[in-house]
Amino acid sequence: MATAAGGGEEATIQRILRITDVAEESLRFLAPIGGYSKMPLVSLEEAVKPLVPILPDVQSHAYIAKQNCKKPADKLTPDESASIMLYTMGWEPPEECLYVVLNTTLRATDRQQKLKPWYLFLRLLLNALFRLPLLPAIAYRGVKLDLSRRYVEGETIVWWGFSSCTTSVGVLKSEMFLGKTGNRTMFTLHCKSARDIRKHSFYPVEDEVLLMAATQFKVVSSLD
User: Known EC number(s) (predicted)?
Assistant: First the structure.
């Protein structure tokens, strides 16, 4: 099982950022990406080399992730487990943090060209995630904004980035997340293909699951 040193206030901050970035989803339908699936499976060290010009500190964080994944769970290889851990890690500045930049790129209209440096890492990360068991669950995401006009009942939408969710509605209602007053939007998601990444996360918590990039949903109801 992967073990990590992440915790405390930093873990809470990163968790909030991951779960509440739903406001960054444009909801536009984008062309599917191609190319990464033809890439070879390589070590994490090799997979992040093309990312150094984009993420100057990625190699040092990849080293930390790899050191924490020597005996991974779920029959993953150390490199596969470490790719998930690296995704969950956060560092400053945010515009040079892996999960922030990756999800921003996945949501971009001109993402085809921008994603090319990510192909080796995406190949490794997706291979790892697909090897994890499916976790049917009711999950939640939210943000301190009113997004109700963007999510119309009956419409089909796509979240192009990877989506961190919580399986505990109480987490979102806490003051650290959405609180109980002001403009807020909370999503209740009936998921068939969530991935339980807790044993591979740098900030392991009991109630966080990950949805794959380009997950499609149908809006079945909306409450004011």
Answer: 2.4.2.31
Q: Tell me if 4 is assigned to some domain.
A: no
* 188: in domain: yes
Average pLDDT over residues 28-37: 87
Q: What is the pLDDT of residues 64-105, one digit of tens each?
A: 999 999 999 999 999 999 999 999 998 888 889 999 999 999
Closest to 1 (Cα-Cα) out of 87, 78, 90: 78
Q: Encoding tokens for residue 14?
A: 């990163």
Measured between alpha carbons, how far is 65 from 79 in angstroms, rounded to an integer?
Answer: 9
Bigger pLDDT: 188 or 168?
188
Instruction: Indicate whether 3 belongs to any domain.
Output: no
Instruction: Fill in the DSSP letter of residue 215.
Output: E
Question: For 128-149, how does the pLDDT look when each residue is reduced to its tens digit (9 = 90+)?
Answer: 999 998 888 899 998 888 998 8
Report the C-alpha gap between 53 and 211 in whole angstroms.
Answer: 28
Lowest pLDDT segment from 70-84, 115-129, 191-205 = 191-205
Nearest by Cα to 117 from 50, 164, 56, 168? 50
Q: Is 182 left (phi over 0), alpha (psi -120 to 50) or beta?
A: left
What's the rounded Cα separation, in Å, for the pair 102 and 162?
Answer: 9
For 151-175, letters b (16+ CB in 10 Å) and e give: eeeeeebbbbbbbbbbbeeebbbee
Q: Count the domains in the chain.
A: 1
